User: What shape does this take?
Amino acid sequence: MPRDRQNPMWSVIGTFTAITVPLALTAGVALWSLADPLADPVGGWLGAVADRWAGVAAWYGAGPVDAKPDWQAMRLQVMNGDAARGRATFVEYGCGACHVIPGVSGAIGTVGPSLAGFADRAYIAGVLTNAPGDLTRWLINPPLFAPDTAMPDLGVTDGAAADMAAYLYTLGDGA
Amino acid sequence: MIPETTLGRYDVQSAFVAAGTGAEHTLFLTHLLFWAAGGIFFVVMSIALWAWHRNAAPRAWWVWLGGVVVPVIALSSLIVGSTFTLAAIGRVDRDALVIEVTGYQYWWNVVYDPGGAALRDANEIVLPEGVPVTFRLKSDDVIHSFWVPSISGKMDMIPGRVNELTVTATKAGRFRGQCAEFCGLSHPLMAFEVVVLPPAEFSAFLAGLEGEARDADTLQLVQGRDVFLNGGCAACHAIRGVATGARLGPDLTRVGGRASLGAGMWRMNVGNLAGWIADVQDMKPGANMPSFNQLSGPDLRAVAHYLDSLK
Assistant: This one.
């Protein structure tokens, strides 16, 4: 037996390790669980993954409260659409010149219909069903679906259309 | 880097962000006054505190010094400072490039070099960096006031008079001006953008103003141009090369190239243009332009796209 093993210092170190390591691990897990799971600690490359998981989380968040899926809410989830970004996008394209859009600064136009309660509408401009795919396609090129419409093709990009659609679907229940 | 537009920005319309000689002089005087007054306040309060603790009989020479001599010196030097500042701001340079700005309810007509080339534009004023420019300020209807806080002080625009204001912009960038005299229902919606360009780019800009408007080169743009000509727009608005002569409304030769619509109030894009044409009285109550809500949907779209294409 090596001489060192007889040194009482080893039992002190052993006991110390046996107590502190599990404690540290427990504390570490506890702290980790406090951190935002969607936060991006390394900056940049995890962002896309975090965004995707934020989408999934939103999907679940909008889902069942009573263990039954809320199909009405789920069918209005817009893929890659960010309602907060969409709200700013309406200003960029000048939508408020023609439409009342609750929550969008200066959007008090009376040229076209008010977009209040948009999530509850059945049709878009009377020609398309009010679903995410149809709504984004409509926002990108309205005259394609309604040749006589006064609503111009505003050069909206795919991403901006998805964001705006996501915001419009937050306007429901009288909002 | 010149920002895309001044809409929603607060740091481009402020006398504390000086970008012209007039604003710089005023800002210097402001700082001088503030710190001098602060220093005097501090000294007076210190003496008051000291006197409180000193507990001695008052002395007449203190009253003479603090009540008469020091104020006379301080106020006299302020008079000298503000007189020189006023002289520097108010000097009119007759040899500088003249830009004639006329206030209308509720927009600005801008003519570069009115005696010579007379290049007409509206609602956006482009200035050369570091070169003095003399504004000839007029009004067509009521009293307006021309104010670009970052460049210079206010100057009223009075019907029947020509007021002159020489400024030198010292920083390239985009700034904001505003009508500063209540002029009617839409007075708060009467703003404009000021773009300060390096002299070479400014010359290019002026050269660009001489040309005709961009051609309508798609079916929709041609339709839009026809709507412009047949719908009555040309009675008030001119587009060089398409319809000239009308002077009641802003010149639209490069309307799509401006950063904002409705005298500095909305972003320039097809959406705002279409909403503006269809219901201008809703966007700018009291404007002289009527709402063109009798245009068919496709016609409205076409003319909005056409105007947006004029860059």
